Amino acid sequence: MLNHDRNDRLTRVGPGTPMGNLMRRYWLPVAGVSEFETRATKPLRLLGEDLVLYKDLSGNFGLIDRHCAHRRADMAFGIPEACGLRCNYHGWLYDAGGQCIEQPYDDLAMADQPGRRRPRMKGYPVELKAGLVWAYLGPEPVPLLPHWEPFTWGNGFVQIVLSEVPCNWLQCQENSIDPVHFEWTHLNWSSRLRGEQGGYSPRHLKVEFDEFEHGFVYRRILQNSLPDDPLWTFGRVCLWPNALFTGDHFEWRVPIDDENTLSVTWHFTRVPREAEPYVQDRIPTWEGPLRDPRTGDWITTHVMNQDFVAWIGQGRIADRAQENLSQSDRGIAMIRRRFLADIEAVERGEDPKGILRDPAANACVTLPIVAREMLIDGLPKATILADPLLSRFYTRYLFQFGQPPAVRDAFAAAVGIEMVADEPLGI
Ligand code: FES
Ligand SMILES: [Fe+2]
């Protein structure tokens, strides 16, 4: 358990809060680049700050205050220009740094004061990588945006999935180091949702947690595991500070504010060898709904939807003063201790865990990966289709409900395998 003071310290992310200061030291994925094929602006709330992400007519992105420095009009209605975004109320134009560079009326009325200072609003650095738009809301010097190993892979179909989850980010991230939930939330609950009765899936016999430079690894042995099972020898990664990495996908939990989290999935599927060489011309981004639009019920058919329901069920901000941590929660205790230590490191003026500043070290940041060879070298189509579990990953999107037909079709064309329609699945 955590007392309320510590729970607040770990969960609150607004400007000036201890965890807010820590999270602002990391680049955060905030949108898909392909979203800006059909829009020029996107209002975003990040770490409790209301902002607007935009793409100007030169193709450059900016992230600035949601409200104009003049009289607070909504910059989400702004007009993109060759350089920057213009307020639609009185035409003030801002560059990507948030500096006002034009005030149409004042520029005439005050033409005798050419050197006068114009107002400035917030403007945060933005970078594009791997089909994602990334933002950095912290102080200088700006660290490097990690170039994770999977971003260097070829012959893959990548898709980005976004969802707004109505609860605090930390309970989402604690799920990234919670091996036993897989047995219950995804295997056993799914079987009951499918109406199956009878015995439960193989139990976890042993779990271990190890810290490394870019996070923590959790490893598991199930009743039916072999001693050299890669989930024991390699494990899965709780990526610092706010993601799960499983080898073929990342799931970032980006704090919108104290009570809402943006779930950002970057999912790589290696095409079968017969489909090589494959070069993806566009990484699609889609939004996954959380509720069934007909009934209003939470969707529970897909892996991440099941996770969302678990996190939301813990409350908007889980009250950790009322919990009873158990043997399977040793990893959760480890990341909480690391977060508290990192908060103190930032307060001392030091870099927290995992910050990259050396370009050579950032050329390709490797991570523990189960089945790395398969993800890089691929498999023949027949091998994929003959494997009951693997074939499911190539015939439907198992992870989240709501994949649009156009993305499904693009995926099917890339892998050369026919997809089946959405259905209640589990894994
Ligand atoms: S409120 Fe934006 S220019 Fe006036
Ligand atoms: Fe899960």
List its traits:
Naphthalene 1,2-dioxygenase Alpha Subunit, Chain A, domain 1, alpha+beta, 12 helices, 8-stranded mixed beta sheet, binds fe (ii) ion, binds FE2/S2 (inorganic) cluster, Rieske Iron-sulfur Protein, 19 strands, 427 residues, 24% helix, 2 domains, 4-stranded antiparallel beta sheet
Structure description:
The protein is α+β, with helices and mostly antiparallel strands and 427 residues long. The chain folds into two domains: 38-135, Rieske [2Fe-2S] iron-sulphur domain (Rieske Iron-sulfur Protein), CATH 2.102.10; 149-415, Naphthalene 1,2-dioxygenase Alpha Subunit, Chain A, domain 1. 24% of the residues lie in helices and 23% in strands. The protein has helices at 4-11, 18-23, 104-109, 169-174, 180-193, 230-233, 303-313, 330-347, 372-377, 381-386, 388-395, 405-415; strands at 28-32, 41-46, 49-55, 61-65, 79-80, 85-86, 93-94, 100-102, 123-124, 126-129, 132-135, 156-165, 204-212, 215-222, 236-239, 243-245, 249-257, 260-270, 285-287. Strand 17 (249-257) and strand 18 form a beta hairpin. The longest helix is centred in the C-terminal third of the chain and has 18 residues, at 330-347. The model has no long low-confidence stretch (mean pLDDT 96). Bound molecules: FE2/S2 (inorganic) cluster and fe (ii) ion.
Question: What is shown here, in short?
Answer:
The protein is an alpha+beta fold and 427 residues long. Helix content is 24%, strand content 23%.
